[in-house]
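Propose amino acids for all 339 sites.
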């Protein structure tokens, strides 16, 4: 399954939703207490100014997605933090227009499509983030990159049913959230196929903005899905494309969003390399060009984001072949195939 553990851990979690959350919380507890709770963004998200909105969102999750709510309860217990703070942190992109979640995705459609993804996040989580191998008692298993303190489902993931999901942040403005976007991302990991996943996004994509690249071993389209604030745009791809975490085809997003310089530079550079025929992994590892780089390792990154992992997900009729790199390794630290 893997070559050698380097800067990216591997955590197994199984059982009920609460038990899974508990295991993920325990895995991330040290990093959360050492770094996250001392950060400015934590204070902004968990402070009293957001308390009323967090309570409203919590009630919505508890009513519509009780299993995800139980996972949040377990996560808080494992982290040894108050549940309202953990819920707030998992609503961060619904409460704030701009949070330190970046990412770049390369999408290559075809008979055996390929999706490559850089997971960019808070630099202090380098060495503390992990791949979660999750086996729920009442749903499909999956592999997902996990940040300490966060639910799976908003990074990159492969499920036992053959679903591939990669996620990019959209910094939409003037959002009035009704359901947290990370909760929807977690719910999508239980979907049996692309149509079910998109239906979840159509019905509940009423929080902050995300871009999902979705594919499935039984339906080998790649769907580029942008959603947020109650709007959604679904585009089946017919040509290679790149997404660098700002809205490209969601009208609600292109009309009212914040595009950082890094996001704009990565989009321009990535599209140029794609047009030149670069391989997806080479694009994702590129640190050149005139602007801010695609692969991000600078301590002075203006968005306070660094590349923490890179995934290459190859969808075939027999399953999903996946390889995962940590931030510094040209060779995969984990690789395998999900039937």
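Proposal:
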């Amino acid at each position: 399954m893997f070559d050698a553990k380097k800067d990216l851990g591997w955590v197994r979690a199984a059982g009920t939703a609460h038990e899974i959350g508990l295991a993920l919380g325990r895995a991330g507890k040290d990093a959360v207490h050492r770094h996250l709770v001392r950060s400015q963004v934590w204070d902004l998200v968990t402070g009293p100014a957001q308390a009323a909105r967090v309570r409203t969102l919590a009630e919505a999750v508890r009513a519509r997605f009780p299993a995800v709510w139980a996972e949040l309860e377990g996560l808080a217990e494992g982290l040894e933090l108050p549940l309202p703070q953990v819920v707030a942190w998992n609503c961060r992109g619904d409460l704030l227009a701009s949070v330190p979640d970046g990412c770049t995705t390369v999408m290559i459609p075809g008979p055996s499509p390929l999706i490559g993804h850089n997971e960019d996040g808070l630099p202090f989580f380098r060495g503390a983030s992990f791949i979660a191998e999750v086996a729920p008692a009442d749903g499909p298993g999956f592999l997902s990159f996990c940040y300490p303190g966060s639910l799976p489902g908003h990074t990159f993931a492969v499920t036992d049913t053959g679903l591939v999901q990669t996620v990019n942040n959209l910094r939409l403005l003037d959002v009035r959230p009704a359901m947290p976007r990370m909760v929807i991302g977690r719910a999508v990991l239980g979907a049996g196929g692309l149509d079910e996943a998109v239906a979840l996004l159509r019905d509940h994509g009423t929080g902050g903005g995300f871009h999902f690249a979705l594919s499935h071993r039984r339906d080998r389209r790649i769907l580029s899905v942008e959603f947020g604030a109650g709007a959604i745009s679904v585009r089946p791809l017919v040509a290679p494309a790149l997404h660098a975490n700002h809205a490209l085809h969601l009208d609600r997003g292109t009309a009212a969003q914040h595009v950082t310089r890094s996001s704009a530079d990565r989009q321009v550079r990535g599209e140029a390399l794609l047009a030149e025929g670069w391989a997806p992994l080479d694009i994702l590892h590129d640190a050149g060009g005139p602007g801010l780089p695609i692969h991000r390792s600078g301590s002075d990154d203006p968005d306070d984001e660094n590349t923490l992992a890179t995934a290459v997900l190859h969808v075939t009729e027999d399953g999903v072949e996946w390889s995962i790199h940590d931030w510094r390794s040209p060779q995969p630290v984990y690789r395998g195939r999900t039937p």
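DSSP finds eleven helices and 14 strands in the chain. The first strand starts at residue 9 and ends at 15.
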